[in-house]
Specification:
single chain, 345 residues, alpha+beta
Length: 345
């Protein structure tokens, strides 16, 4: 057999390496993203972008310690805490977008400097409720009496919902929206300005007929007349009258009501009397007042039970978020964090 000369061997090795080195440099650092449908204007050119994993620092209320988590892991804990685990996957996906949009918007508003407190958000309703997988399983076991297999299946479905929407957030005019959500509507959502002071073009009243199937659609609460008068600072007349509703919102809820010579907003009544919603009616019976409410929550943004109802009818998470948040886009979070947050965090 004819032997190759040393120079020829060296040349062959150099040629071989010239083809293999680019692959060696690229493959270990590439990450295949889950298939996502983004609006055409927001699709990122992955070849020109360097992926950044954004983190969120969460103050754990029980331990008073700060826990740093990748955003996607944080979103799993929020979705599992904020929406029933037995909901349809498309509803869970919609919740994942709302949760991810909230934290993305919060981090962007906080600016590029490290938060003075050392954390970005708490794990309570002050921001979004977050619980670890172990904490979630403990709750499911206690409240639903689920066995391990059922808990693992439910958590797996939530993880899939988050993974299948990875990196997606809701934007309006190229900014993350205030992706507010609540449990159950009275059949309509609210204009933002009808409950809060500020309006938002994407938070407008829409129909939500699916909520009538929610176990939280109607409720009753009974107060003594003495309690009622004390909480509202009024004196009711001796007859059977309580008050008069003087205005309704676009979402068919109470805008204003006159009681005992005072005018209250529906929100004031809800908060003072700790009602489930601002769609309420009152009747007087003996020394008590029976209050019937319809819906559960502030009513602005996405109804969770409405989202689940849409999913049961075959609607996708994209259909859901575009119904409850008007004229929004589904955008890629990475482009916001690459240029505005990630470099300094």
């Amino acid at each position: 057999m004819k032997q190759l000369k040393p120079i020829a061997v060296l040349s062959a090795l150099l040629i071989l390496l010239s083809f293999s080195i680019p692959s060696l440099l690229v493959l270990p650092f590439s990450k295949e993203k889950a298939g996502t449908k983004l609006d055409d204007e927001t699709k990122a050119d992955s070849a020109d972008q360097q992926e950044t994993v954004a983190e969120v620092a969460v103050l754990r209320s029980q331990s008073n310690k700060i826990e740093k988590l990748p955003i996607e892991e944080y979103v799993i804990g929020v979705v599992a805490s904020e929406m029933p685990a037995d909901f349809e996957k498309e509803a869970l996906k919609a919740q994942a977008l709302a949760a991810r949009t909230y934290i993305a918007s919060h981090l962007l508003r906080a600016g590029e400097s490290e938060p003075a407190e050392g954390y970005d958000v708490t794990d309570t309703v002050q921001h979004q409720v977050y619980k670890s997988p172990d904490e979630i399983k403990a709750i499911w076991k206690r409240e639903y009496k689920w066995n391990t297999a059922k808990m693992e299946k439910a958590l797996g479905k939530i993880k899939e919902a988050v993974k299948e929407t990875e990196g997606q957030i809701l934007t309006y005019n190229d900014k993350p929206i205030t992706a507010s959500f609540f449990s159950t509507s009275n059949g309509f959502t609210e204009n933002a300005e009808d409950y809060w002071e500020n309006s938002a073009p994407y938070l407008k009243s829409v129909e939500s007929p699916w909520d009538s199937q929610s176990p939280k659609f109607t409720a009753q609460q009974t107060l003594s007349i003495a309690e009622f008068e004390k909480e509202l600072g009024v004196t009711l007349p001796k007859n059977q009258e309580i008050g008069t509703i003087t205005g309704r919102t676009a979402g068919k809820k109470v805008a204003t009501v006159e009681i005992g010579g005072k005018v209250f907003t529906g929100r004031e009544i809800r908060e003072k009397l700790k009602l489930r919603s601002t769609d309420f009616g009152m009747v007087r019976k003996g020394d008590s007042i029976i209050i019937t409410t319809k819906g559960y929550g502030h009513g602005v943004g996405m109804s969770q039970y409405g989202a689940n109802g849409m999913a049961k009818e075959g609607k996708t998470y994209e259909d859901i978020v575009r119904h409850y948040y008007r004229d929004i886009r589904i955008s890629n979070m990475d482009s916001y964090f690459d240029t505005k947050v990630a470099a300094s965090r």
